[in-house]
TrEMBL record:
Role summary: Binds mRNA; thus facilitating recognition of the initiation point. It is needed to translate mRNA with a short Shine-Dalgarno (SD) purine-rich sequence.
GO cellular component: cytosolic small ribosomal subunit
Highest taxon, organism lineage: Bacteria
Boundaries of every S1 motif domain copy: 21-86, 179-248, 265-334, 351-420, 437-510
GO biological process: translation
Protein name as it appears in the record: SSU ribosomal protein S1P
GO MF term list: mRNA binding; structural constituent of ribosome
Homology family: Belongs to the bacterial ribosomal protein bS1 family.
Keyword annotations from UniProtKB, A to Z: Ribonucleoprotein, Ribosomal protein
Lineage, uppermost ranks: Bacteria, Thermotogati, Thermotogota, Thermotogae, Petrotogales
Xref: PANTHER family: 30S RIBOSOMAL PROTEIN S1, SMALL RIBOSOMAL SUBUNIT PROTEIN BS1C
Family annotation (PROSITE patterns): S1 (PS50126)
Length: 531
């Protein structure tokens, strides 16, 4: 083995010697509460790196990990050497930084004319306010931002976010073409459109008319801030750096293929969007809305549309006609449901007692809705076994009542109804139990021109009290009685033609009074004769 020369030994000693300013790689062998110990590789000795001279928090280091350090202090007497990882990495990073290159920066402080920043968290640099793309009122940004080094003179470095952004925007505009589909995030929503962030410092605009084929939907109902979207580039202005986008053009205009998707006569599912005086509108697809005219709502008598459907209801409709040029669709609601009169006998028969709803009160009766598209007429004479003078005192619109079907005319779509026939004729019992000359009690319920109507107790029938028979005194009927007064009277007449008709009864208070007065006079005379 060749012996080492003195020159070689001298070179090795110099290489292995620990000197201040020397940058050496080492391996962590011990971690203390205030720093780490590093065993140097290719040199004699160990060094201590305090927590302040590390580039990461102490807890992120592990025994056996390799790091590069710069010797900052040597002590031959005590054999204790100190080093800095921060300085070693700083020098390495500083040497790599070049003008015209882009680097991540972290904001440190606000200065009078700009900001103090750190390149890659180590190298101090100056960011002029005019090149920061920030307002003086803005808070210091958190986290890393990208910037371009526009000047490097020794340790004096100037960076620009504006130059970096312009470079990236130019790159993007060179890559983008009209007709491309790109991703973005909704950043702000205005009435005229939505701004979509496509990249740092670059937004595109989706005009309100380009959001959906359904122009009636508000842009704020369709998009939310923070929502991720795919959009089509419809206009690219490279000179002004503006991008116009469209969401709706990612889909075909629904009117182009409306007749293929919804053939005439087909049934479509839709949502009621508006109630009109002459019908209602239904949305059957995005951008496709049709009208159900009132003539296509009801099979029978025209009613209130709001009683049939409400805004937001899901309904089935039949496609009647499509006008692609004027973008109009005529729909039918009733034809999907089917004409209830065609199968009326399957559901209703004469003599059935059913529950209906008062649709309209007339002078001579009322229209009663039995089912969707099926209504019947209730004549005033069929409301009660008693006489009804004012229908509105007995029936009100939307009132639920039980009725008996007494006649069905399928051909003319008509139905006659009766309320009174849902109960047994009270005149039948009254005519059997009450005879002329009997005394009855009742309550005055209304006055007529020449008399009063009295509801007879226990029978629910009305009797007529002529004014001339109301009293033996000379007072008028209204002076002698009030509505609600209880009276006793003698039955003068009572009759019932048949059990399907209303009977009649005439009573007299004066007859009863005269009879009792005679009885009292006879009693007094008899008592006098006995004396």
């Amino acid at each position: 083995m060749e012996e080492k020369t003195f020159e070689k030994l001298l070179n090795e000693q110099e290489i292995n010697e620990v000197k201040k300013g020397k940058i050496i790689e080492g391996k962590v062998f011990e971690i203390n509460s205030d720093g780490i110990w590093v065993a140097l590789e290719g040199a004699t000795g160990d060094v201590f790196v305090s927590q302040e001279e590390l580039i990461k928090p102490l807890q992120e280091y592990q025994v056996g990990q390799k790091i590069v350090v710069e010797i900052t202090k040597t002590n031959d007497a005590e054999g204790l050497n100190f080093a800095s990882e921060r300085r070693a990495v700083w020098n390495e990073t500083m040497n790599k930084i070049k003008e015209g290159e882009n680097y991540p920066i972290i904001f440190k402080n606000r200065l009078r004319k700009g900001y103090s920043v750190l390149i890659e968290g180590l190298i101090g640099a100056f960011l002029p306010g005019s090149l920061s793309l920030l307002s003086p009122k803005d808070d210091l940004p958190e986290g890393e931002k990208m910037a371009k080094v526009i000047s490097k003179n020794g340790r004096n470095i100037v960076v620009s976010i504006k130059d970096y952004a312009e470079e990236k925007i130019n790159q993007i505009f060179n890559e983008y073409e009209e007709g491309m589909v790109i991703d973005g995030v909704v950043e702000d929503i205005k009435n005229f459109g939505a701004f979509v962030r496509l990249a740092d410092h670059l937004n595109g605009l989706i005009p309100a008319r380009e959001v959906s084929w359904d122009e009636k939907i508000s842009i704020k109902d369709h998009l939310k801030v923070g929502q991720k979207v795919k959009a089509l580039i419809i206009r690219l202005d490279r000179e002004k750096k503006r991008i116009s986008l469209s969401l709706k053009r990612l889909k075909e205009d629904p009117w182009k293929s409306v007749d293929e998707k919804y053939p005439i006569g087909s049934i479509a599912q839709g949502t009621v969007t508006n109630i009109l005086p002459f019908g209602f509108t239904v949305k059957i697809d995005e951008g496709l809305e049709g009208l159900v005219h009132e003539t296509e709502v009801f099979w029978g008598r025209k009613g209130r549309i709001s009683d049939v459907v409400n805004v937001g209801d899901n309904v089935q409709v039949k496609i009647l006609n499509i006008d692609k040029e004027n973008k109009k669709i005529n729909l039918s609601y009733k034809q999907v449901i089917g004409n209830p009169w065609e199968t009326i006998e399957e559901k209703y028969n004469e003599g059935n007692i059913v529950t209906g709803t008062v649709e309209k009160v007339l002078n001579n009766g009322a229209i009663i809705k039995i089912d969707e598209g099926v209504s019947g007429f209730l004549h005033v004479s069929e409301i009660s076994w008693d006489f009804v003078d004012d229908i509105s005192t007995v029936l009100q619109e939307k009132q639920k009542i039980k009725v008996k079907i007494i006649k069905i005319d399928k051909d003319n779509k008509r139905m006659r109804l009766s309320v009174r026939e849902t109960k047994e004729n009270p005149w039948k019992k009254a005519s059997q139990e009450i005879k002329p000359g009997d005394t009855v009690k009742g309550k005055i319920i209304r006055f007529l021109d020449k008399g009063a109507i009295v509801l007879i107790d226990d029978y629910e029938v009305e009797a007529y009290l002529p004014a001339s028979k109301a009293s033996t005194n000379s007072k008028s009927l209204e002076e002698s009685y009030s509505i609600g007064d209880q009276i006793e009277a003698k039955v003068l007449e009572i009759g019932l033609e048949n059990e399907f008709k209303r009977g009649n009864m005439i009573i007299s208070v004066s007859h009863l009074q005269e009879e009792r007065e005679k009885e009292e006079a006879i009693k007094i005379i008899n008592e006098m004769n006995e004396d």
